[in-house]
Amino acid sequence: MKNCLVIGAGGIGLRHINILKTLKYKVYLFELNNLISNKLKKDNYIDEIFNNFNNINSFNFKFSIICSPSQTHLEYCKILTKHKIPFLCEKPFSNSLSGLDKFNLVLKKSNIKSCVGYPRRSSKGVMRIKNILDSGKFGNLRIIKSNFSQDFRKYRPDYKNTYYSKINYGGGAIFDALTHHIDLLIFFAGKIKSVSSLSKNLVFSGVEGEDFSLNHFIFKNGVIGDVHCNQFQKPNYDKIEFICSEANISFDRISNVIKIKKNDSGNFQEIQLDDNWDEIFKMQTINFIDNNMNSQTSIDEAIHNVQVCEAIRKSSKLNKHIIINEN
After folding, report:
1. pLDDT tens digits, 106-134
2. Which residues, 6+ apart, have CB-to-CB distance to 178 below 8 Å?
3. What per-residue confidence (pLDDT) applies to 121?
4. Does the CA dihedral 284-65-31-120 come out positive or negative?
5. Buried-exposed string 82-119: b where 16+ CB fall within 10 A, e elsewhere
6. Confidence band for 146, pLDDT divided at 50, 70 and 90
């Protein structure tokens, strides 16, 4: 039997558990919340549930998926690395940079397979565009424009009572939502050199973080990025556009359409894809299990993502352009 470990059974943890069951894995769960544990035990939904790691090596886990609150991610990554268990950690890798570089050195020496879960990289549209851009067919990438916005209150009406309300728990639009598109920008254009940001709380009450963020990025390779995110608009937006020296390429993940525009005649190539969010999420897991790591977010990239998120908040607070200094 193929054994795997899921740490945390909140909404995202249950999504991972459902996928692992369809892949015929025997799922063990580490969960500290007794209310959640008792419900899952009653429903006979999990093969085994425990609340300590005393016998972790006896289960011969093939891998683990960390779905706990983001402020605990590093703690669990350290435990899994100590026991040489490969892991996929949910995003963001952490809410702060504290301890990340030191842990990363230990992780690299261990040679354990690891990544951070940003599922958009596993979508057919993103991978199709990545191949197009890497081919150089339409010249050099110069600008990336992105809009990742939705009415979060519709999808999480209990947001005031969740992690979202507290910055230290990963709340606010930057670490909750914008981090996804920062990951895509890193995937397509590499590391970000500097950022200017305007981030505010415009609509939401009862939360510490921002619900709006407008950002300008300069990449180390000279590419320019502009990213908009708000969490109260209608309708749901998940759009990204690539302005190359010879053509524009856009991808709307909601409609699953790629458009390639080579001139301003109004005629353009359109590619309709058949992705859906459940399949994208499942493909991320399959790629990890099968060692197809080209579409996965590395720990190095995930740490850089945290650096960018922190720089965004700093830029908005100080009203100045922030250079991202790496250790």
Report:
1. 999 999 999 999 999 999 999 999 999 99
2. 148, 213, 215, 227, 229, 309, 312
3. 96
4. negative
5. eeebbbbbbbbbbbeeeebeebbeebeeeebebbbbbb
6. very high
Beta bridge partners of 203: none
User: Residue 249 pairs with which residues in a beta bridge?
Assistant: 242, 260
pLDDT, tens only, 236-255? 999 999 999 999 999 999 99
Burial class (CB in 10 A: 0-12, 13-18, 19+), 232: middle
Instruction: List the beta bridge partners of residue 198.
Output: 214
**How many residues are listed for the chain in this entry?**
327
d(CA 80, CA 68): 14
Are 224 and 189 in contact, with CB atoms under 8 Å apart? no
Tokens for 97, please give them: 């940079």
Task: Give residue 301's identity as a one-letter amino acid code.
Answer: E
Among the residues of the chain, which ranges form H helices? 11-22, 34-42, 73-82, 100-110, 124-135, 152-155, 173, 179-189, 277-289, 299-318
Q: Which two tokens stand for residue 120?
A: 């958009």
Kindly list the distances between the CA atom of residue 289 and the CA atoms of 4, 23, 86, 226, 268, in Å, as whole numbers in the listed order: 11, 10, 10, 34, 38
The burial of 6, by beta-carbon neighbours within 10 Å (0-12 exposed, 13-18 middle, 19 or more buried), is given as buried
Q: What is the pLDDT of residues 281-327, one digit of tens each?
A: 999 999 999 999 989 999 999 999 999 999 999 999 999 999 998 65
